[in-house]
Design a protein that fits this description.
The complex is a heterodimer of chains A (469) and B (406). Chain A has 19 helices and 13 strands. By secondary structure, chain A is an alpha/beta fold. A seven-stranded mixed beta sheet of chain A has the order 3-2-1-4-5-6-7, sandwiched between helices. Chain A has a six-stranded parallel beta sheet with strand order 10-9-8-11-12-13, sandwiched between helices. In chain A, helix 2 runs antiparallel to helix 3. The two termini of chain A are 40 Å apart. In chain B, helix 2 packs across helix 3, helix 5 packs antiparallel against helix 6 and helix 8 crosses helix 12. The longest helix of chain B has 18 residues. The chains are: A alpha/beta (469), B alpha/beta (406). At the A-B interface, helix 7 and helix 9 of A face helix 11 and helix 14 of B.
Chain lengths: 469, 406
């Protein structure tokens, strides 16, 4: 039997919101695998509590992808939601119904540690519940009866998702060591290790272990920028882990054109006015604060700031900012927050914005910058980390901490329409976007590089793929 | 055979249940003296808070925790209780009287283990013993640089005076002793330079220990199933210092399924130091702290380990740990400091000397993961016969027989 390439879709299985960058990567690689319909491709999921892999059919993967793609702007999934959607366990339902409403009222400093503690307790409760259910339900519906996937000799396992949540790296390492399976894994960034203060709770130690185990477990690590690759290799030197074979794969940035009837009323109304777009989860690292302060600075100088639209879920560490935005009468009507925005609505917003901003303090890549350029829109972005790899000389950069610089640039490109049009012309002429299909093809190419060659011997290394802007 | 003599060993720790290297050494020397037909007594000056479980009840003087002698020239200084114990025993009148009651006035040889109790020995000679005994100074280290390494990180204001006092003490011991015992060639040279007249080399040794299959099976269940490395150490601060200097805080050089097992009271120091910080999760997954374990379990752990590590970066003397590691059938990875006194054994099969922390980790990793190393174990049995106590202390009976003529 010939060796197969297995794409892990555990993140797709569990994801219950509109796609974020990592989910998009997994989805787009899935799409290519599905479209190629190569019998040597397979899909699987992983359960880190039972250490079991299970094979998943193409139909189920399509359904999971549609479920995520069709999340509407109003937060409800579209009618095409698949029957195979993972069920939410009873313990989790109880927590959501009774504990979460109380939880959001707690001070932020308490929430992080409590989340970590309760997550562990919840996982335990779910396992116990699963066992109880196993007694009550018919054997055919008991997950234990689903045959565990056994990888074949020379198989290649590709995982691109939220592995720190869904994988047991120790188990993956043992699998790699004890069987002839090659693991192609991904490193998006080392932010939780490098800047734990910008994440929820004290995650540095947990992620240090995750990255160390990732390096041990992977036959090959794909990094999403040269900067992330350098961060990973620096980490290896620091902790004395052998550096893994690695390469850089640029992420795609194409969004399908917005479909008629899929744009919510609020978003459609926004599109009728001038606005500046910032696409990102609203969390400390993304530095929405500097834009709020820049807006205040512009107002205090006697000008009217452009309308700012923040697209993204409200995450951690921004309680005071959100409160400021609600209560500060100076910025009333100048800043709008949109969350649970669908792909159609996102594409619509990119089309309609004047330009985009991206003041993030640190990134593994900077997908919104690439999406902005792909949509032909100019961007003002932070000069940090990997972002210059994305924007090159086609965008303007600011020090992420310099409020004055942000205010001046925003005013400049809001008031000087000719200058903005010139920058957009340059983008149209020079920007060579990477499509998601190209990204997926690179992943596939790397995975194929690990398949046994004609002589039957597995290759030791895959060829590194250079980064492209 | 020499005429039987009354020998008094002066120590700062009991040896009823010897665990750390110093205790083992004193116990072995006592055994050698007894086998030679001498009458040996031990007087211990024990810090009140230490060795509570294995006291030398009949012949000990307790150094109270609230004694004014706990201060060095009016200041509290950590890690010098041994130095202060000697001053206490000699200068605290009730302590000295208690010591005097416990000493046979006809003692012919005062065996001073380490220099700490020299002030007591001197006063006993002056005021208690009928005839001036011969002093044997049994050095375990050149102590002052060792203390310097321990004290330096603590920014103690009068550290120079402390070190000077220890230097003087060592010199007095060396000059006053009829015989000085050194554990390594290097120490022998240093002691001679201090003024020692007759230096006998008696390196630290080990004893072979029989282990039952049942004990091995029991230990196997408590130890990692995958090949593991073993670090054995007491709560002596340099053990932790060396550990962190060599492993640079992170054990990520080991793959996720391999572990470093740590045995001994050094675990208390490591646990406290690694419970926070960025490497916590990495180290928790790759380190198993056994704490203080009994001799049988320790021997089982040595039998089951693939590698014994000796991350020793400070200290003089020679290490029993090194001798034990060399005698085992494990691979041994140590620093050049750890092989002080055992230089002749560095080229034996399965022995690796690595002073670069990165290479140290890489070597350990190779030894617990590479099939080439996992297929067999190094055989050093014949080559290490000279490491057992009966060999290392072989010169002591002659020394004690001739001491009256010196």
């Amino acid at each position: 039997m010939s060796a197969k390439i297995w794409l892990d879709v555990t993140t797709l299985k569990h994801w219950q919101r509109p796609a974020v960058g990592i989910v998009r990567v997994e989805s787009e690689v899935c799409r290519l695998f599905l479209e190629e319909a190569d019998p040597s491709f397979g899909f699987c999921t992983y359960d880190k509590h039972t250490f079991r892999f299970e094979e998943v059919t193409s139909e189920i993967v399509w359904a999971w992808m549609r479920r995520i793609q069709d999340f509407r702007g109003d937060g409800s999934a579209a009618a095409s939601q698949p029957q195979q959607e993972p069920r939410v366990s009873r313990p989790r339902r109880i927590v959501r119904r009774h504990l979460v409403p109380m939880f959001v009222k707690l001070p932020e400093g308490l929430r992080g540690p409590l989340v970590r503690h309760l997550s562990g307790q919840l996982a335990l409760a779910e396992r116990l519940w699963g066992r109880l259910k196993g007694v009550r339900e018919t054997p055919s519906s008991d997950p234990v009866d689903i045959p565990s996937l056994q990888f074949g000799r020379g198989d290649v396992y590709v995982s691109l998702g939220l592995d720190w949540d869904y994988k047991n790296m120790h188990h993956l390492y043992k699998l790699k060591r004890e069987s002839d399976v090659r693991h192609v894994l991904v490193c998006y960034d080392l932010i939780p290790y490098l800047f734990p203060h910008l994440c929820v709770g004290d995650v540095a130690a947990i992620f240090a272990k995750y990255f160390a185990d990732l390096c041990w477990s992977a036959s090959h690590v794909m990094c999403i920028s040269r900067h992330s690759q350098e961060d990973l290799l620096a980490f290896c030197r620091e902790v004395n882990v052998p550096p893994p074979n690695s390469s850089v794969i640029p992420l795609g940035c194409d969004l399908a054109a917005p479909r008629e009837g899929m744009i919510g009323t609020d978003v459609r109304r926004l599109g009728e006015r001038d606005f500046i777009l910032f696409v990102s989860t609203i969390e400390r690292r993304k530095n929405h604060e500097v834009l709020y302060r820049a807006a205040v600075r512009i107002l205090e100088s006697g000008r009217v700031p452009p309308h700012l639209v923040f697209v993204g879920m409200v995450g951690w560490g921004v309680g005071e900012l959100i409160s400021d935005l609600k209560l500060d009468p100076r910025t009333f009507g100048h800043i709008t927050i949109l969350h649970r925005v669908s792909d159609d609505e996102l594409a619509f917003l990119y089309q309609r914005c004047s330009f985009t901003v991206f003041p993030s303090l640190y990134e593994g890549w900077g997908l919104p910058v690439a999406e902005s350029l792909r949509a032909g829109k100019f961007c003002i972005a932070s000069s940090t980390s990997s972002i210059p790899e994305v924007g090159g000389d086609l965008i303007d950069y600011c020090d992420p901490w310099n409020v004055t610089e942000w205010a001046e640039k925003i005013v400049l490109y809001t008031s000087d329409r000719d200058r903005l049009a010139q920058r957009e012309r340059e983008i149209r002429e020079k920007y060579k976007p990477t499509t998601w299909r190209q990204s997926a093809q690179q992943v596939l190419s790397i995975a194929r590089g690990f398949l046994p060659n004609k002589a039957g011997a597995a290759r030791e290394t895959a060829s590194a793929v250079p980064a492209q802007m | 055979m020499a005429l039987p003599m009354k020998i008094l060993q002066l120590t700062t720790y009991p040896i009823e249940r010897p665990l750390h290297g110093g205790q083992i050494r004193v116990a072995q020397i006592r055994r050698v003296y007894e086998v030679a037909g001498h009458d040996v007594a031990i007087l211990t000056i024990r810090s009140e808070e230490s060795y509570r479980e294995s006291r030398n009840v009949d012949r000990e003087v307790v150094f109270p925790i609230n004694s004014p002698h706990r201060q060095f020239e009016g200041q509290s200084v950590p890690f010098i209780d041994d130095l202060l114990a000697g001053r206490f025993a000699a200068n605290d009148q009730s302590a000295f009287e208690r010591a005097a009651q416990l000493v046979d006035p006809d003692t012919a040889v005062l065996h001073l283990e380490q220099p700490w109790l020299y002030p007591l020995a001197e006063r006993l000679c002056r005021e208690v013993l009928r005839t001036r005994p011969k002093i044997v100074y049994s050095s375990q280290n050149i102590e002052w640089p060792l203390k310097q390494g321990i004290l330096e990180p603590w920014s103690i204001s009068n550290v120079e005076r402390v070190l000077s006092a220890i230097k003087d003490l060592e010199a007095n011991c060396a000059q006053d002793a009829a015989v000085t015992i050194a554990v390594s060639e290097g120490d022998a040279k240093a002691l001679t330079e201090m003024g020692a007249r007759h230096v006998v080399l008696a390196p630290n040794g080990i004893d072979d220990w029989e282990i039952s299959p049942e004990a091995i099976a029991g230990a196997r269940a408590k130890l990692p199933r995958e090949p593991f490395a073993l670090f054995i150490g007491s709560a002596h601060p340099p053990n932790a210092t060396g550990f962190f200097q060599v492993f640079r805080d992170s054990l990520a050089f080991l793959p996720p399924d391999r572990q470093l097992v740590v045995a001994g009271s050094v675990c208390d120091l490591l646990a406290g130091a690694t419970e926070h910080g960025r490497w916590k999760a990495i180290n928790e997954s790759r380190m198993r702290l056994l704490g203080t374990i009994d001799r049988e379990f320790l021997e089982c752990a040595k039998r089951l380990a693939r590698v014994i590590v000796l991350p020793i970066t400070v200290g003089g003397g020679s290490n029993l740990k090194t001798a034990e590691a060399l005698r085992s059938d494990c691979y041994v990875v140590g620093t050049s400091t750890s092989f002080r006194g055992f230089e002749a054994y560095q080229n034996l099969p399965g022995v690796y000397v690595e002073d670069d922390p990165r290479r140290f980790g890489e070597t350990v990793r190779r030894l617990v993961t590479d099939d080439d190393f996992l297929r067999s174990r190094p055989d050093r049995k014949d080559a290490t016969n000279g490491l057992v106590w009966s060999s290392t202390l072989a010169r002591l009976p002659h020394m004690i027989a001739e001491i009256q003529t010196l």
